[in-house]
Structure formats: structure tokens, C-alpha cells
Design brief:
By secondary structure, this protein is an alpha+beta fold. It has two helices and three strands; from the N terminus they run βαβαβ. It is elongated and about 45 Å long.
Length: 69
């Protein structure tokens, strides 16, 4: 059984008084409002996006088991 990693990303701080770029980054992750949670694959691209706005987010790593077919 192979395991794949995902990231559970939750917005914990408001984007009010943040730059327009930071607001767009939050929206690009699929986060719509405060305390909204999304799950994304753990890739270097997603990690880079998170790094730019890590002060607004809570990020948890989760492993999902996947059976070989």
C-alpha cells in the first residue's frame, strides 16, 4: 500500500488590510472565507504558495493510503 501526502490548509487570519496580491493568493488556493479548509496535494508549487501567506494559514500534513490495483 502506497501513501500519498496531502496538505489540509485552513485560513485562520483575515485578509482585511492585506495586499491585493495576498488576497489573490488565498483565493487561488480555493479558500473562500475565514476558517474555510481545503485539501491540496503536497507539491513544491503548493508549498511555495503557502510560504508567501503562511502568517494567514494553518497547515497540517495528512497521509492518505492508496491501494495498488
Amino acid at each position: 500500500m502506497s501513501k500519498t501526502k496531502k496538505l489540509r490548509i485552513t485560513q485562520v487570519h483575515s485578509t482585511i488590510d492585506r495586499s491585493e496580491k495576498q488576497k489573490r493568493i488565498v483565493r487561488s488556493l480555493g479558500i473562500r472565507k475565514l476558517h474555510h479548509t481545503v485539501e491540496k496535494n503536497d507539491t513544491p508549487q503548493i508549498r511555495g504558495i503557502i510560504k508567501k501567506i503562511e502568517h494567514l494559514l494553518k497547515v497540517e500534513e495528512i497521509e492518505i493510503g492508496r491501494a495498488h490495483v
